Amino acid sequence: MKFYKKISIALIGLTFYCCEPKEFLNPLPDTAVVADAFFSTDADVLAGIIGIYDAIQGVNENTNTSLISSNRGVQFEYLLTEHRSDNTRSATLEGSKADFHRYLADPNNVQSEDYYQSMYEIIFRANNILNYIDVANAGNRAKYSAEAKFLRAYAYFNLVRLYGDVPMVTKVVGPLDNEALFTRVAKAQIYQQIAADLQEAINNLDNTYKSRASKAAAQGLLAKVYLTQDDRNYSGAAQLCQDIMGSGKFALEANFSDVFYNELNDEIIFAIQYQAGNTQESQSFSSEFTSAFRQGREDGLNIIDNPGLISDFATYGGNRTAASYITFGTSNECIKFLPEGSDVTTTPPTYGSNARDAGNDWIILRYADVLLMHAEAILAGGVETTDASAIDSYMAVRTRAGFDPVTDRPSVLTKDALLVERRVELAYENQRFFDLVRFGVADAVLGAHAAQMGYGSYNARKLLLPIPSREINLSNGLLTQNPGY
Known about the structure:
By secondary structure, the chain is mainly α. It folds into three domains: 1-205 and 466-485, Alpha Horseshoe (Serine Threonine Protein Phosphatase 5, Tetratricopeptide repeat), CATH 1.25.40; 211-273 and 361-454, Serine Threonine Protein Phosphatase 5, Tetratricopeptide repeat (Alpha Horseshoe), CATH 1.25.40; 284-356, no CATH class. The chain has 20 helices and twelve strands. It has helices at residues 4-14, 21-25, 32-38, 42-57, 77-80, 110-131, 141-163, 178-182, 187-204, 215-228, 234-245, 258-261, 285-288, 307-317, 367-379, 388-400, 415-425, 432-438, 442-453, 469-474, and strands at 88-90, 166-167, 184-185, 268-272, 301-304, 325-328, 331-334, 342-343, 350-351, 362-366, 384-385, 413-414. The strands form six sheets. Strands 1-5 form a two-stranded antiparallel sheet. The protein is globular, with a radius of gyration of 22 Å. The two termini are 37 Å apart. The model is unreliable at 1-37 (pLDDT under 50).
């Protein structure tokens, strides 16, 4: 993120984190004296909050190639999401990254382990801020607390969707407090905490930022929580989406490509920023998405797997298709996040001067997603709706893609049409796997996909990732494993 660097330096200079494994999961300062010295002013608390975003941003794999406890943040998320859907895969079968698209990721998978730890890094940094919130100026405490809780909720939402029941820690605990660190808590209880944290964020934040927590980001995330939790709250989700839509703060970009290359544009609600050419603030996933003309360290990742996505683009993509993927020979590659300075119209294509130190933002929530969630909330788990407002939201996204607002407008919006619309609109944005689960069709769709592609290891239990073995070992068996692993 553009403002992360100087804050990160301050964090390194003023706080120290132990190297013991448990303390990576629970990053407490080495001593209470150090903690008190750091969190002694309002500015210190704000710096600590920015440090939470640094944990989401993660460490560029090109900068630090270690496979152990590297805190990649969201930079590996596509492996755990897109690769486990019917959208994308690794170009080769080599290495642990290639295990995700074949449903072979096991409890020792280093990328899954890193993601799990990275989410808890976010959580424990947030908890540490909350522990010292009284140090902040009285006028800032409510919004600082709300921001930390938003980020904690974001991390827990990712964890609970990918791993199921997980340990829930809402305060700073000692590194030897195994019961707090390793006792799995039921999803329903975790969702209650997520909802409470996000509601506090809604009540205390405004829409000043797109690269930090905001009221709209909390509303959008809570809407998705309501659509995902077992006890669905469709009316609540619809109202939250309507609040965002009625705020006048957001709009669809006229040009679909501008969503990704005109950063922090009108469509962005919440994004994590990176800085090109800065090894401490850049990301490497943009280069790893290249294959035929490889720019990254791998042979190509996040290339289209199932021909069904290409077919859906051809039928439903409209002008999004040319801005979403490109074909080089037999390689169908993502072009939503090309490294800055890329030009794929040349032969061979060029990828700028900092392909492995790219600055492309990672978009967590954007307005098109909210519009489609609004339609989903009105559909309310049914197979179709004639509700005009749901169809209006659906068609707003379709019209931007080049479809006619009159002749292409359906009289009935179906669940299947909405799901495929989300697929082509949000391809490569780590939404497809979660969409399939939320719509209740993941096992059927992914079972058929695995059979078509010859991934014989798929079964319904693979919808949850395994709890990392390292964490189970650290817990001395207190932390249990998901079934089937």
